[in-house]
Amino acid sequence: MTLPELPGFPVSRPRRLRRTAALRRLVSEVGVRPADLVLPMFVREGIADPVAVTSMPGVVQHTQESLVKAAVAAVEAGVGGLMLFGIPTDKDGRGSGADDPHGVLNVALARLRAELGEDTVLMADLCLDEFADHGHCGVLSGDGTGEVDNDATLERYAAMARAQADAGAHLLGTSGMMDGQVGVVRAALDAAGHVEVGILGYAPKYASGFYGPFREAVNSSLVGDRKGYQQDHTRTVREALAEVALDVAEGADIVMVKPALPYLDVLRAVADASPVPVAAYQISGEYAMVEAAAERGWLDRERIILETLTSIKRAGASIILTYWAVEAANLTP
Ligand code: PBG
User: Could you tell me the fold of the domain covering 31-255?
Assistant: First the structure.
């Protein structure tokens, strides 16, 4: 971008348009609409009451019953969609609960779809980490290195995609960062007759310290990190655009940047280049950071919620996943 040529002071006085609230409202360019917001929700098997996620004040692991209630309330508040994560009682190496129609996530999807029909957009996290005893996003190679086997994982994702679509999800969030995952999921959906079910491709997705509180939220058993498959934050947008190009070529209907606030440069580049709608995920650590500071009285919570969401919109996201979705929907005009 080149700098504009403007008459100098005193002809130019930018403060003229900032003087009153009415003037500021008139020239305002970016806003957040409730329908742009998606609420991520956790549903846990085998609990009698909701369990608080201590590192994310205000967020809970739901029972099937409390999930339905909270989902109905979110839709009534006007949020645009729900993104579901499941926490099973039993985990194994291949994440068997993920594609089991009686698995916690698929049961929840079916219940919500029955309850909400087409009133909202129902999304499901398509990844093995919540269902696998080792906590990784795919199956391990079996050679003792702890490496995630890309192509063996794709077969699991195909099965998971069929199960989630059968359960009634509208959009599947491919969050595992396996190469080729979008294409395999698209083919599996089409072969099963689910041509109308869409894919929200997580591309780019960085191996981030900001996922910290999410580990508690899903009772993760992960040891180590995901640097072998998620992106390195020292790479430039060159790699981010390559990931987007691949996901779009494989059939992603929407692409998502994640995390959001520390990656607004990436988000802007993706938004400028993407032929499909662009979402951003304001993740657990972004949420926890603000909640913790606000609890100490160091930040004005509501102001920061709106400021961060507006910044993510300004950087080019038309859709934002945020744990503040319901509250923000009530804060926006
Ligand atoms: C993978 C997944 C993760 C998140 C969303 N989908 C965890 C990860 O990739 O490590 C993180 C969301 C958050 O931190 O709020 N199932």
Answer: TIM Barrel (3.20.20)
38, 131, 175: residue to mutate for ligand 1 pocket, most atoms within 8 A of CB: 175
Longest dimension (CA), the chain: 72
Q: Is any atom of ligand 1 closer than 6 Å to the C-beta of 226?
A: yes
Task: Indicate the pTM of the whole model.
Answer: 0.97
Query: Based on the number of CB atoms within 10 Å of its own CB, is 46 exposed (0-12), middle (13-18) or buried (19 or more)?
Result: exposed
Residue of 3, 21, 36 lying closest to 329 (CA atoms): 36
Domain boundaries, the chain: 31-255
Q: Which amino acid is at 255?
A: V
Give the 3-state DSSP-derived string for 304-323, with helices as H, strands as E and coil as C: HHHHHHHHHHHCCCCEEEEC
Q: In this structure, are residues 328 and 39 in contact, taking their beta carbons and an 8 Å threshold?
A: no
pLDDT digits (tens, 9 = 90+) for 202-247: 999 999 999 999 999 999 989 889 999 999 999 999 999 999 999 9
Is residue 141 exposed (0-12), middle (13-18) or buried (19+ Cβ within 10 Å)? middle
Task: Return the ligand 1 atom nearest residue 226 CA.
Answer: 10
